[in-house]
């Protein structure tokens, strides 16, 4: 029996409705597969730390990494659909594994972070690992010795660390931090390494490879720039001097590397100091020292990745504010040195 015109229209509408349902069903199944919908199966409780200023994507990555949710994307979608994400506070949470994204979101909102006391610790630019450890031991209840062992034997990883290097010297970012009383030495080390990575991204440090060095070698250079420069305007010029000397196989002659070899923060060096037998003695050994000689700040990292243009090979302090005079020839350097060596900056 043939369909009437009205019957054909109804049939057509049914077919169209079914076709429209297929992607809808498929979309639902996909969202269920990444944990947006469905039921939670709470498992063991784990500790999750949410840093200040975290995006929904960052929190999703943290939760997925701890197996709290199935997918970071699922958490982002749940945060978008349900809202309220901006009310999640930074801090440490105890939360069960095996939750749907929606349940995880509401657990964070309902529970709130554990209450913590914080200590403010400042790590100055140019700090050595020993300085980081001493500041941490002085200003918190954490162990200076335990922290120093962690960072000097590569028990905390950094993506910049070469296979043959075991020290994180130069790879912790110098700044002021709030250290919670529930954080241990490893937490702090990982925080400092992560902040260093974030700062590298901020200044587009990968550009340093345009200078013919690896990023780790760039950090070594930045650490020398940090030790030598006293004002920001000189940093990119000092970086250029280092690159220029490397390009002609000239000894770098940076005395800060000798202080590092001696293990002392010295303001002046003796003839005996200058003759120290060490791969860090850049007066005697050409090329870069084996590792950074301290923690470069953002300005030195940026200057190293984007050095000034110039043919300079030498520089010398030219005033009591720390400015340097730069020169291309050795004779010009000697003239500048004679001109400024009588400075009385007492």
Task: Give a short synopsis of this structure.
The protein has about 350 residues and is mainly alpha-helical. It contains 13 helices and six strands.
Question: What would you say this structure looks like, in words?
Answer:
With 346 residues, the protein is mainly α. It contains 13 helices and six strands. The strands form three sheets. The protein has a two-stranded antiparallel ribbon with strand order 1-2. The protein has a two-stranded antiparallel ribbon with strand order 3-4. The longest helix is centred in the first third of the chain and has 29 residues, at 5-33. It starts with a helix and ends in a 6-residue tail after the last helix. Residues 12-22 have low confidence and may be disordered.
Give the tags.
about 45% helix; about 350 residues; mainly alpha; 6 strands; two-stranded antiparallel sheet; elongated; single chain; two-stranded antiparallel ribbon
